[in-house]
Amino acid sequence: MSENQRLNLFGEIGMVADDFMLFEPKMDSGSETPSASNKIPKEQLIVRARKFYRLMMNETTMEVFEVLGSGLKRSSMNSLSSAMKTLNCCAMYLLIVDFCRLESPTWLLLFIRHAFDFGDSVQATPNGLDLISRFGSLSRAEIIDAHVSAALKYLNRSDSEKIRLHLREFLENGSKKNLEILQKCLIEPMPSLQAIR
Length: 197
Known about the structure:
This protein has 197 residues and is an all-alpha fold. It contains eight helices and no strands.
């Protein structure tokens, strides 16, 4: 995706997020608290973040299954789930890394945080925020390499250069698809929080 395409898609997502009042609440003049009409609809943000996590995990799962093929038999369900969660956390975090060129808006940081929290409630290990705190200060390429290495360690496949390259390419080239998933989660009507637990 070219830089102009990326900026255009970020702009579209920003407009959608603005429609849902996901940006920081505006202050009433002379007040230190947000006005009621401009508060972030937290329940909708959480519901959309949960859907985002699930859709992102679906993409990651399909990719890992495709890459491993018959090699899936070599991995336990726990190690497979941990590897997929590691890659999924990386893909979500890369949205922040990519957005940072435009200074990540608060709504995106909050949205991704809710997605990580939901992922941790579904599967505790590895902890999403722990992963990012370990790898978050690295460059984009180093973040990808670190997450791929961690995933391969869970799969006991650290020696497989072919799988390493494929997973690296999946994360490296996933920005456009991941942004489209984010946009879909912001646009589509959502059920209530109780319906998506």
